[in-house]
Design goal:
The structure is a homotetramer of 478-residue chains. By secondary structure, chain A is an alpha/beta fold. Chain A is built from 15 helices and 16 strands. Chain A has a domain of 144 residues: Aspartate Aminotransferase, domain 1 (Alpha-Beta Complex).
């Protein structure tokens, strides 16, 4: 709606009062115009009202919202439940078309705009936080794992004869399942253990390329963000191999958009080598509900291969979440969260060290991991290593989520492949440990509360252990 | 919240007034209890208020909504934008876990409940409309095509040596792309042409099984709901082949849950043969926004294979849409829509016949298609066959969406496979035609408006054609 | 926001798709333009989305919603709670100014528009349903009683020497309190009893005018809508008196806008005599939450006196409710409710007669009451008249609200005035009765359910009574 | 709804996951219990979700929300428009009954609870910020002026022979109209001028009491919060008169709840004398939309007189706004706003002084006004006093609202009473001035922006004036 084309009678409102109100609209209208014409993230976040006005206007461009619509097809974006329509701002057509996530829909100009505008804003964000070479990206309304699968599938179309995926081990089920789902053959490259931290075994990558043969290898597959003490893979070195042998390189950057160090690593790896796709979770990086991932590339032309591998039309709900979130944050709002995360990581690390030292534990030095931290539980566990797992549930019971206890001896088979000491990203784990992470959005208050609770749980376990020992001693003496 | 444990002082409200209010709550509480304990679709639809109360309560069971939460992980379902949180009722954790869509999440009891309750209600719905043998089903937050891909991928895990998918031709891109995405090899089984309608070539299926060998065939892949004049595949006969040769059978039932005839066909096919999975779109059948599909099976044990092929955690937004929609409709509300669709299909067919006859056209007799109808455009097109395509855009411009004009000679290559006369599900199409569908949710008013507009467009094209002929004649005479 | 001034790049959406969407906006824009320029109720109701778009746009014209606002006053419409702001669509400034409900606010062009547009639409509605002579009206965000007080106060400014208000008795507390609140002196004119129904005693009005003297009388005060068996006052005859003696005439038309007969009576009374103000409840007539009344007049010039008697700025929330409701109903939607109410009244009366006859009761013939009905409870009560009151609470306990039981002997004193048989609008009531009403919005289903419940309660009381008599007889016999 | 009475099957969610979720509900349930049982403002604000859960639960206790309701009355809280119902959380019955704002409604236990709980929380707030002697209060859904009228009307019922209201002059229309609306006779007590500030003329009050006679005086009527340079009335001294002569004392405390000084003054005045009612605006003090006022008293028994003077049932919407706002702020949230206001007032005053000094103006020393400030415009105006009014609109045009320019010579007649120099609270104003206020919710950023804009406007006017003088000089010289 637009008041300026309406001759509002003086009887309704005095014209000088009205003019003030109309003048105030103009800056808003300018912000809409700029957003749509320049497709850049606004500097400052928008108000809820402004965001909703844009979203409503976009939705009104879709045919299911035309007042005079006549639907004679099998899919007309009819929505039976008013509450559902309302929560989707009357968007119903989804995004993409005929098996291509990036295609426009004739029935749904608004949904098309929504999807493409969102992708443009994400690109602007990615470039702004330290990846100026990023050439393009788009949101896929599937999880990171499935999106990695989609990338592998699209690579297979390019390299139909290749069947191996060289994968630097990381113990997260869906990263691995992303390979097995495609029917391709995973080749696990174990990490190098340095101290207690884990690094990419670049030499082994090279050896495998030679031994398996370049043509039989679909791609090299690395991971940045991960649980300590595993470090972010050395993607610069792997990128060099990728460039040298002309083998595609796929990076699982699950929650790496939130860390300056990883962002820099990606930009640098592209300069010295080759990355075909880097894939990241929307929810973990952009603070939206679970449900989508972002495929990005330094080479725009290869992106479309991935988009056209999605067989159908997809949910637009995730694009809407990301669009609304980015507009509400603005460039400054995201930057603030980004910087605070970095500071909170340092705060967490420092406090974890202070916690560890007097208790005879250490914070493992995984210097190439700037999100997650691991503290050993050697003294606490003693020789009752398995019993230490209850620390995790004790923390959980008290409201701490996300802290994980890793103990030796947890083997696991996934789709026929056995992983020793699953969870630790390595075989032959000796010392149990606990990991915690400073994810984007974490508050200093949460960190403080965590140490309170951690301390209480620690003491409780410690005391129990000592009592057991004492009673054992007593029994022995008698 | 629960008033009954609260001693509301008389100063706030007289007790006898309060008791009346509390009594009214009890029937509501009973409906919640029944829903959760019995997991059946309520007979009558619920009010918006009741639906939202349930949804809010479920969300409050997720850890991101605990008042005392302390998040130390990399994924804590933090939601940055209030508007986004609000439209998701504060759900953030998605569904599934560790690469299994059906697994429970320790951090998210509410999301787990949401997903499983939704699946239970869908199952109850499917059984109630004519598929009592259905053993289980679940919602996948991806489109139908990608869900078919997921099924194929999970079948490959069972039959790693097989590489062919025998597919009864249907000209919808994503159905075909669902195969090529997996890297499997599609074997196209052209339809039999009978009159102008198209039927499954069961004999050719049999021949191909013999010629390619059972072990090399991953599955038989058929489609029910489709555009006329293609008929629903003869899934009963294909099921028999499937049973006889022990080859899996996958059915693309995209919008088949809305048609009694197709539902009966499925139930029957299972009795006489074998169907491993039948997959349907949520948006097309259940009137929710685009974004999810339902995998169902007559054999519960094989369902989990599909769920565990999804590599990651998935969006819960689609489960929420379906849950809210089913609760708002109730069993009776859905049944009403279901029955009305049947009546409206008859109404549309009858009126299409009345429209066709005086114009020298026919409604093609595709008797095994109970959703879509095709009317020939032979006389209208005359020898200007290609020009008839503009009829489609004329209709679209006037608000009619979903009507499609098919003309001969539209060849298309998808992922390396060429399809002659793409769109017509056959080669060597002679007569152009228009298809329209009576999808669930269509109204009689829409059908009437369609014929108004169709008539006007027809006359306009017809007149233009005659004028061209006249002027041609005139030129000739001169 | 207005897309037409924005050059949306082809990269975001193909222009031909966009144009279709934009074309669909134009009919909407036309509806906004027409509403604001013509200030007439739309023929058909608007969709929720359209209503909210208008409301949001109006709110954005208020200074508290300017992006660049700087508030240095004591009242800046700051809203602390987001939820509150949201439910008021960010309206905060209320309506009116400096003690005049109709004045525009320099700070709030949108609120001013909201209030005046609402008044214009109400006027259009009132004229359309049978009061074409109505010259003006406005919404007062106070209850009907307080609005009547406001009218009396404004009349006093015109007639400072007058102190009597001649009031045709109606036993509703707030009608009477509306007089005593002002400090004026009520002169009660008892009704004439005809059969069991009650009519205006016009002769007594005339006598009182003569005996008290014209100048000492502030106004004549009548009531239309009321509980049976009281009839609507004979406002035509009272209007003649008003005209003849030049004494203002105030009509309490609480829920009279919903009845054709009352509307006609008002229009007719104005033709033959004089009505200064007629006041009606918004909630009872327009189905909004309790909270406002409408002052209307056949003489626009006197309306402003009332508006300028309101000492301050008032809530705009009620105007918003009425505006949204009228737009959602449209002229046709209200007309439908209006007509259905008439039919449901006939249905209720007929069924009440069928209920009464076999039980030896009658439906009192109050033919000038077309909303409420009274059925005698003579046989049911027998000589246990007081005990019949429990019938009311029995109905209430079973979900029936609004049915009232009136028994003789309930005297009451209000602000120093004693009313015998309060509730019956008369003294010396003999026969107890029950009243029910067919208000606007009632459904046939409710009426049917009422008779089910009424029947059960009746039988229960009847049986108890008989058992008492029997046991009494038995005792006597023994 | 209450999960604890439901046996949620393990199939839906593992019990240990569910138990964590349920445990998290308990603290929420405790907060509800405590609120309703103790009726005290929570220490910390509640989340939106918690507030809405309470509000929905309250609404579900009203009969219009019973699933089995059968409405046979003339007022059944039917709501025609879904959007309206939604924004009122399905509350429809309003508050109060039969002409008494404090009475419970049998049909609406929830609305009754809503109203009374809100009143209880307001009382707790008032006591907590420095008025521990406050005995009771309630919200009236009318503006402050009309609520003052209501108080006067209820006082008249107690003192029917009295007709004068002794009123310390304040130039705000609705304060005065509050008297004239009642038909009582205002006796204006001009302020004492001390420097340029204005103080209560207590002696004149005393004289008037003597000259008019105690019995003829309905009440003394003072005002606390007001525009500088008028000071808050000396309510302590007036209270002493009130006590001494046993004449009621009514205090207009429009926006006085936000200032520590005024709150202390009220508490003290009650100790040394008598205040019957003090009335304050909800929107100005509690940051809700315009529409209600709060009547408070140190004597609970006299409050009911006011409540029972409201002739009808009133809107509950304002109670809802206040309830939601208070719960969202909590005691601490309000305290923070309250303290910040005080600091911002000091900041504004300091900056105003810095602004005034170099320009040859002064900030008038109205030390008993702790909200509003006045700066003289003597030098700016020069001898073009009237032209200075444009400063106001210049500020307004630039987004500054609430700053008022007062110039000599603006006489005004209200309801027959003439006020010289209206706006200045005095006759014979010499020096023009500008007032600004630091209301609750003002931000430091706003104050800074104000001085930017003020400075620019000042310079512009100053320059124009100088240019005029120069050109005048030039003309003269020539």
């Amino acid at each position: 709606m637009n008041f300026e084309q309406v001759n509002i009678p003086e009887k309704l409102v005095p014209d000088n009062y009205l003019q003030l109100g109309l003048a105030a609209q103009r800056s808003k209208q300018r912000s809409f115009k700029e957003l749509l014409e320049k497709r850049k993230l606004p500097k400052n976040g928008w108000s809820d009202e402004r965001i909703e006005e844009l979203v409503h206007m976009l939705a009104s461009l879709d045919s299911n919202n035309y007042p005079h619509k006549v639907g004679l097809g099998e899919r007309e974006a009819r929505i039976a439940c008013k509450l559902v329509a309302r929560r989707h701002y009357n968007f119903g057509h989804g995004i993409g078309r005929s098996g291509d996530l990036l295609e426009a829909q004739p029935k749904a100009a608004g949904s098309t705009l929504l999807a493409r505008l969102t992708n443009a804003l994400i690109l602007d964000l990615i470039r702004g936080i330290g990846l100026p070479s990023c050439a393009g990206c788009f949101l896929v309304p599937m999880c990171t794992g499935m999106t990695l699968t989609l990338c592998l599938q699209s690579l297979r179309k390019r390299r139909p004869g290749a069947r191996y995926v060289l994968w630097s081990r990381i113990d997260q089920k869906s990263c691995f399942k992303a390979i097995t789902a495609t029917g391709l053959v995973p080749v696990v490259i174990p990490c190098l253990i340095k101290g207690e931290s884990l690094n990419t075994n670049v030499d082994l990558f090279r050896e495998k390329i030679k031994s398996l043969g370049v043509d039989s290898i679909l791609c090299l597959y690395t991971t940045t963000s991960c649980f300590a003490p595993r470090n972010s893979d050395d993607i610069a070195e792997v990128s060099k191999l990728s460039k040298q042998w002309q083998i595609p390189h796929l990076v699982n950057n699950a929650y790496g958009l939130q860390a300056k160090e990883i962002v820099n690593q990606l930009e640098c790896a592209n300069r010295v080598g080759r990355i075909d796709y880097f894939v990241q979770s929307s929810d973990k990086n952009l603070l939206v509900p679970v449900g989508s991932a972002i495929v990005a590339s330094f080479n725009e032309s290869v992106l479309h291969d991935v988009a056209s591998t999605y067989a159908g039309r997809a949910s637009g709900s995730q694009s809407l979440d990301v669009l609304m979130t980015l507009l509400s944050l603005g460039r400054n709002g995201f930057r603030l969260l980004f910087d605070q995360r970095g500071e909170n990581f340092n705060y967490l690390r420092e406090n974890l060290r202070k916690f560890a030292e007097p208790r005879g534990e250490i914070v493992i030095d995984s210097r190439f991991n700037s999100i997650s931290l691991a503290i050993t539980l050697a003294t606490l566990a003693g020789d009752q290593m398995k019993s230490i797992t209850k620390l995790g549930s004790m923390l959980h019971m008290r409201g701490v989520s996300g802290a994980r206890v890793i103990v030796p001896g947890q083997n696991k088979t996934i789709d026929g492949h056995e992983f020793l000491d699953f969870g630790s990203h390595r075989s032959n784990l000796q010392v149990p440990y606990l990991t915690v992470a400073a994810g984007i959005g974490i508050t200093r208050e949460e960190i403080d509360k965590f140490f309170d609770i951690f301390n209480k749980c620690w003491n409780q376990i410690f005391q129990t252990k000592n009592e057991k020992i004492m009673s054992l001693l007593e029994t022995t003496i008698k």
